[in-house]
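Lecture notes, part 5. Sequence design as translation. It can be helpful to think of inverse folding as translation between two languages: the language of shapes and the language of residues. The source text, in C-alpha cells, appears below.
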C-alpha cells in the first residue's frame, strides 16, 4: 500500500510518500520514497508565535513546489512503468479549480504541474484534519481533496495527535530509506506535549485490533510548548522559544547557577491535569519586578521555568503510570525534543521498570511521516474508504 500524506496544521508544510513493504506480527517495514518539510519558523520568529494568516499564505506557496520535489525524489525508488500522465486532464483541471477556488494561486500552481508531469501510482492520500490552526489545516485538506480527484484515490483525514502518538514507534538508521514501525505495545500510556497540547492518553486495543484512546489528563489552559514560547517572548527570545529556553537552562545547570524559584501549578491536584498559564504569569511578574539583562539572570530564569514546567509533568506521569499499571510510555510532540524532560522520564521508566519510547529527534516536530504512519494505524492497513466528502478542518479535534 502506497500513501501520500500531507501535514499543514501549524507552521510546517510537510509531505511524505511511503509504502508498506512488509507487514508481520513484529511490525512493519516501511519504504520512504520521499519525506520533505518546509518550515516557516523563521518567518514567525519576529511575532513570538505562529501568525495564522502568514501560516496559511506560506502553506499555499509551499505545497506545489514541495509536491514537485517529493515526486522528483521518488523517481529514484518508484519504477518508471509506474508513472503516467494524468488522464481526462480537462475534466480534472475543472475539478481542481472548483475545489481550490479560494486559493487561485495554489490552483494555478497545481494545474500547471499536472499538465506537464507524470504521476506515480498511489493507493490513498491522507491529510491532517485537526487539531491545529483551522485556516492552515484547510489549505492541506483542500489540496489533498484536489489530489484525490487527480489520482482518483481515497482521501483520509488524520488526527495530528495520533501522528505524534505513533511517532516514537518509528525506528530507523536512515530516515531517507527504510524504517521499522513496531506495533504500539499493549498496556501503553502516551504523553503528548506540543505547542497546542499537554495530554496523557491511555491506549487500549479492542477485539478487532482497533486502538481506543482515552485522554486521562490534559492542560486546563496553556500547553507546555505554548508556555515555553510565551516565556521566551517575555525574555526577548525568538520563536520557537522551547529550544532557546532549554539551551539557556542547560547552560545554567553546567554553571551551577541557582534557579529562580517559581510555582508548580496543580502539582498536588491529585488528578492528571495540568495548568501552565499560572507559571507563565509568575514569570511575567518576575520579569516586571526583576531585571533580566545579564546572561546569568536569563539563565537563572530559564532554569527556574524549565525545572517548574518539567517537575509537574514528571509528577503527573509517574502517578498515571503507577495508577494505571501501564508498562510502556510513548512520548511525542515538539516538546519531546527537550533533553532535560527526557532524562527525567527515563529515570521514572527505570524506577518503575517500564519502557520509554521516544521519537527520533527529526520526528519530534510536525512532519508528514508520522501522519502517514497514523494512516496505517487508523485504517488497520485495510482497504481505505474515501472520506473526501466529509473531511473538515477541526481546530480542537480530540484523539479520543
Ligand atoms: O509538535 P510541534 O512541532 O507543533 C505543535 O503541534 O504545536 O511543537 C512545537 C512546540 C513549540 O512550542 C516549541 O517551542 C516546542 O515544541 N519545543 C520545545 C523544544 N523543541 C521544540 N520545547 C522545549 N524544549 C525543546 N527542546
Ligand atoms: Zn504537533
Amino acid at each position: 500500500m502506497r500513501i501520500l500524506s500531507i501535514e499543514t496544521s501549524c507552521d510546517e508544510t510537510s509531505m511524505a510518500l511511503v509504502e508498506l513493504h512488509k507487514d508481520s506480527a513484529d511490525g512493519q517495514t516501511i519504504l520512504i520514497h520521499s519525506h520533505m518539510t518546509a518550515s516557516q519558523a523563521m518567518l514567525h520568529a519576529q511575532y513570538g508565535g505562529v501568525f495564522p494568516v502568514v501560516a496559511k499564505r506560506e502553506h499555499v506557496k509551499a505545497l506545489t513546489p514541495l509536491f514537485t520535489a517529493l515526486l522528483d525524489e521518488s523517481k529514484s525508488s518508484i519504477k518508471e512503468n509506474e508513472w503516467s500522465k494524468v488522464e481526462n486532464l480537462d475534466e480534472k483541471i475543472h475539478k481542481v479549480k472548483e475545489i481550490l477556488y479560494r486559493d487561485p494561486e495554489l490552483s494555478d500552481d497545481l494545474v500547471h504541474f499536472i499538465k506537464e508531469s507524470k504521476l506515480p501510482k498511489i493507493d490513498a492520500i491522507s491529510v491532517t484534519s485537526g487539531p491545529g490552526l483551522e485556516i492552515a489545516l484547510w489549505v492541506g485538506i483542500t489540496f489533498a481533496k484536489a489530489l484525490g480527484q487527480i489520482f482518483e484515490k481515497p482521501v483520509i483525514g488524520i488526527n495530528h495527535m495520533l501522528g505524534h502518538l505513533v511517532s516514537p514507534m518509528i525506528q530507523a538508521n536512515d530516515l531517507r530509506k527504510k524504517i521499522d514501525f513496531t506495533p504500539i505495545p499493549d498496556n501503553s500510556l502516551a504523553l503528548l506535549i506540543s505547542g497546542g497540547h499537554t495530554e496523557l492518553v491511555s491506549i487500549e486495543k479492542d477485539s478487532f485490533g482497533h486502538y481506543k484512546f482515552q485522554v486521562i489528563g490534559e492542560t486546563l489552559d496553556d500547553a507546555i510548548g505554548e508556555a515555553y514560547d510565551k516565556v521566551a517572548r517575555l525574555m526577548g527570545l525568538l520563536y520557537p522559544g522551547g529550544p532557546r529556553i532549554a539551551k539557556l537552562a542547560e547552560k545554567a545547570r553546567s554553571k551551577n547557577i541557582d534557579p529562580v524559584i517559581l510555582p508548580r501549578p496543580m502539582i498536588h491536584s491529585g488528578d492528571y491535569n495540568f495548568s501552565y498559564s499560572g507559571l507563565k504569569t509568575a514569570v511575567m511578574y518576575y520579569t516586571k519586578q526583576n531585571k533580566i539583562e545579564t546572561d546569568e539572570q536569563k539563565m537563572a530564569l530559564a532554569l527556574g521555568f524549565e525545572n517548574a514546567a518539567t517537575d509537574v509533568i514528571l509528577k503527573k506521569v509517574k502517578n498515571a503510570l503507577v495508577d494505571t499499571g501501564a508498562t510502556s510510555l510513548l512520548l511525542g510532540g515538539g516538546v519531546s525534543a527537550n533533553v532535560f524532560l527526557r532524562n527525567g522520564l527515563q529515570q521514572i521508566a527505570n524506577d518503575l521498570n517500564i519502557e520509554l519510547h521516544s521519537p527520533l529527534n527529526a520526528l519530534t516536530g510536525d512532519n508528514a511521516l508520522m501522519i502517514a504512519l497514523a494512516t496505517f494505524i487508523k485504517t488497520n492497513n485495510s482497504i481505505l474508504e474515501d472520506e473526501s466528502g466529509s473531511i473538515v478542518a477541526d481546530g480542537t479535534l480530540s484523539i479520543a
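The translated text above is only one of many valid answers, since several sequences can fold into similar shapes. The radius of gyration is 22 Å.
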